[in-house]
Design brief:
heterodimer, A: seven-stranded mixed beta sheet, 0% helix, 50% strand, B: mainly beta, six-stranded mixed beta sheet
Chain lengths: 113, 112
């Protein structure tokens, strides 16, 4: 069964450094998403992406965040200058159509020191 | 502010019993409703989705939706210890960028 893949599984970075989290959505999916989950808290929406542009972003997705689809398969989340509070699990998801179930990758655990 | 509420639990049921998980949402324009299961340290895994009022059954799982009451539930029949996990309710409204609003999850414990 096709799946969403995310790399790396764990990223440790010094505060203030830039990180790029990578995702390969399911190949025939058109809608892409990033969510985050701080330990012990609920899953929070960051950004949705369709047709090579951001559809919607949350208040969390401020100027330090950006997304890109650099080629036909990858979907990346960049955090420009990381803060301690960015430590969380980051999930990428994709769906075939806008109202269909979203399929999640295994996540990247981001630890900011 | 769109809110999705769930009892945090833990909800404990004996093996073989029916587990009933509930979710309410504040945005009356919500159109699509999803249940995900999340094991500790893992990613959300889709269980079921429902778009229309009424019941939808898939194996041991039944989703129930009542848009008038802004309420969606998940029933798990013949609960197994492997069903022990956190169950996340997610709600979506297409004209808001198709993103999910997740509830905090209900932790289910199925006792052997």
């Amino acid at each position: 069964e096709p799946e969403v893949t995310q790399t790396p599984s764990h990223q440790v970075t010094q505060m203030g450094q830039e990180v790029i989290l990578r995702c390969v959505p399911i190949s025939n999916h058109l809608y892409f998403y990033w969510y985050r989950q701080i330990l012990g808290q609920k899953v929070e929406f960051l950004v949705s992406f369709y047709n090579n542009e951001i559809s919607e972003k949350s208040e969390i997705f401020d100027d330090q965040f950006s997304v890109e689809r650099p080629d036909g398969s990858n979907f990346t989340l960049k955090i420009r200058s990381t803060k301690l509070e960015d430590s969380a699990m980051y999930f990428c998801a994709s769906s075939a159509k806008s109202n269909q179930p979203q399929h999640f990758g295994d996540g990247t655990r981001l630890s900011i020191l | 502010q769109k809110e999705v509420e769930q009892n945090s639990g833990p909800l404990s049921v004996p093996e073989g019993a029916i587990a009933s998980l509930n979710c309410t949402y504040s945005d009356r324009g919500s159109q699509s409703f999803f249940w995900y299961r999340q094991y500790s340290g893992k990613s959300p895994e889709l269980i079921m989705f429902i778009y229309s009022n009424g019941d939808k059954e898939d194996g041991r799982f039944t989703a129930q939706l009542n848009k008038a009451s802004q309420y969606v539930s998940l029933l798990i029949r013949d609960s197994q210890p492997s069903d022990s996990a956190t169950y996340l309710c997610a709600v979506m409204r297409e004209d808001y960028g198709q993103n999910f609003v997740f509830g905090p999850g209900t932790r289910l414990s199925v006792l052997p």
